Amino acid sequence: MNESGAAPADRVLDLFHGVRLTPTQRRIAHCLVQQAGAAAYLSAAEVAELAGVSQPSVTRFAMALGHDGYPALRRRLRELSATDAADPTDAGNELQRAVRAEMGNLDRLAGQLADRARIAEVGKLLAASRPLPVLGLRAAAPLAAYFAYFAAKVHPDVRVLDDGGSLLTDRLEQAAVAGARALLAFVLPRYPRETLDALREARAAGLTVVAITDSPVSPAGEHAEVVLPAAVGTDLVFDLHTAPMTLAMVVLQAICDATPAETQTRLEAFESSAARRQLFLG
């Protein structure tokens, strides 16, 4: 990634690229990404407290990244902060900057999609899951519903799971008994506890979990076999989900590509029905 054009959180993420982290180390990494603007000035004890881990875990984390210890990692973080300070501030008001940040998030997502084989495998996995449960709670619920609305046009059995509580586990288990092989989950900040519990239950039921989430080191990574990151915009009062929604449609395209003949048949059947019922004006 070109550092001169990257946001602070993305520069911190670059430090972990290609490094296999333990669940504890992922929590530390996620903490540093969330605190990207201040991470360079946090002590090891402060990072440990924020991440909910021990101070020696922070030291081992720094060493896993190739540093002699946490002080060396903090020096690297300060170098990244200095680069941020040297960058000119984007022109425009705060609303324009928020939109430009989303453009940056989409640009980074486009870079990730250079590996078409990975997305294609995800498409095959989800297309073969009959039924296909789609999980999204709280802020992620609209994204799950949006994905499922279009997915139902090309997949015979899409089941939206957007309510928490004890019935959520029941519906996951029912989907598994009915033949589901995978779960597509939208896991977005502030990471509802129920969502992470549901991912654990899904794996216990034998489902392969595919998670669309905001970061490679988000809490979803501890419970998902496949993590598809798409950054969330944070420059306004409420989060912007432009990149996650785009990624959702990319995944749906991969599902269509995995079953082209069935997709075409189902789309033609829908268009015929829509025309007969005069559903649309245009």
From TrEMBL:
Pfam families according to UniProt: HTH_6, SIS
Protein name: Transcriptional regulator, RpiR family
PANTHER family, per database record: GLUCOKINASE, RPIR-FAMILY TRANSCRIPTIONAL REGULATOR
SUPFAM superfamilies (UniProt xref): Homeodomain-like, SIS domain
GO terms, biological process: carbohydrate derivative metabolic process
Molecular function GO terms recorded: carbohydrate derivative binding; DNA binding; DNA-binding transcription factor activity
Domain HTH rpiR-type, residue spans: 8-84
